[in-house]
Amino acid sequence: MIRFDNVSKYYPTRYGPKYVLRDLNIEIPDDRDIAILGANGAGKSTMLRLLGGIDFPTSGKIKSDRFISWPLALASGMQGKLTGRENVRFICRIHGVNANKETEEFVKDFSELGDSFELPLNSYSSGMRSKYSFAVSMGFDFDTYLIDEILSVGDAGFRRKCEAAITNKRANANIILVSHNMDVLKRQCNAAILLAYGRADFYESVDQAIFRYQNL
After folding, report:
1. Cα separations (Å) of 112 from 78, 82, 117?
2. CA torsion sign, 9 to 51 to 35 to 33?
């Protein structure tokens, strides 16, 4: 279970506080794969950052008993001076997981980095870093995976591999997915949250949520 209790988030600006989310009260069930819909600026990515613990509410609380991933493809928690292999070990220590050769080789193979896996992350292009971060995320068994447009990373072959990996993880976990690709949302999700007009509304039907979103 994940529950937002009167959660608000704003950022200071020269014109005063800019609210992205305001007084959200919503419960996200464990047994559904959730699509997050909303116009640009509605707070979709902010919601994922709050869920992943890399940002904090201005007010209110988020309660959960789930082991939740960071937003996939986010590389901010990694160390640029460490190699791809060393970062796998570093991230394992952060999450209290024993690093092993199998996990390291899985990340190397999935990310398709080849010899660059042994180079510092600072030498990676943005595309390489996104592939690497996704591969690291797939090396962990989370209860809930947070996905923010990562399924558009790389070429068509890599995108298919990403979707297949997510589908496989869904056998024992659920996902919360932000994407502007409605076909991806329909394939991967079976419920939705629509952020609009300062509200967060839960929909049992992805099709219904998409219809409401497209008619805002």
Report:
1. 18, 18, 9
2. negative
Residue 9 · residue 19 · CB < 8 Å: yes
d(CA 57, CA 132) in angstroms, rounded, equals 28
Distance CA 68, CA 52 (A): 6
Cα dihedral sign, 180-183-184-189: positive
Token pair listed for 127: 């595309």
Distance CA 148, CA 150 (A): 5
Tens digit of each residue's pLDDT (9 = 90 or more) over 68-121: 988 876 655 689 999 999 999 998 887 777 778 999 999 999 999 999 999 999
Token digits of residue 197: 């007009």
Q: Coil, strand, or helix at residue 67?
A: coil
In degrees and rounded to multiples of 5, residue 188 shows phi and psi of -100, -20
This prediction's pTM: 0.87
